[in-house]
Amino acid sequence: MPSDTEASRPGRLPALIHRVEDGLLALLLAAMILLAIWQIVLRNLFDTGISWGDPLLRVMVLWLGLLGALAATRNNRHIAIDVLSAFTPKPVMDVVRLVLFVFAAGICAIIAWAATSMVSADYRDNVIIFADVPAWFFELIIPLAFGLMALRYGVLLYSQLAQLVAHKRSS
């Protein structure tokens, strides 16, 4: 019989996905720092710069933020205002958590759907972001990240429901 720590560990596929996410975050942050430093050196020492450097840095900030949000949701470590839990009984907080997970999953799904429409429109209209690179390619992170966050909140909802049912059966 697996211990509690073994049962709470992710399986092989989720663990691989977590490592890929973490690796992408680290790689993206390192690339952003190097590109920003290179831009500063070029501007200050050679009075020039990379024409697409600043727009790429803005896109990289978007990717970094969304990948960071995705990583935060994987273990329910997103930003939370925890004032309510200090004054609310545990059974009520369990129900509040269910409502919050439904709300978060729904909002993320709506944003993913709207972002998919935006990416499709930019693809159809051949919108260019910089240096003849299509905008839709860089925008793909928006529907993907929010879709995965919606899925993760759905998993958290299912997990919370399973805990409540198990607790109800044991009492």
Explain what you see.
With 171 residues, the chain is mainly α. The chain has one domain (4-78, 87-170). It has helices at 4-8, 12-46, 53-73, 83-87, 90-124, 135-139, 141-170; strands at residues 128-130, 133-134. A two-stranded antiparallel sheet has the order 1-2. α2 (12-46) packs antiparallel against α3 and α5 (90-124) packs antiparallel against α7 (141-170). The longest helix is centred in the first third of the chain and has 35 residues, at 12-46. It is elongated. The two termini are 22 Å apart. Residues 1-7 have low confidence and may be disordered.
What is the element layout, followed by pairings?
Elements: H1 4-8, H2 12-46, H3 53-73, H4 83-87, H5 90-124, E1 128-130, E2 133-134, H6 135-139, H7 141-170
Antiparallel strand pairs: 1-2
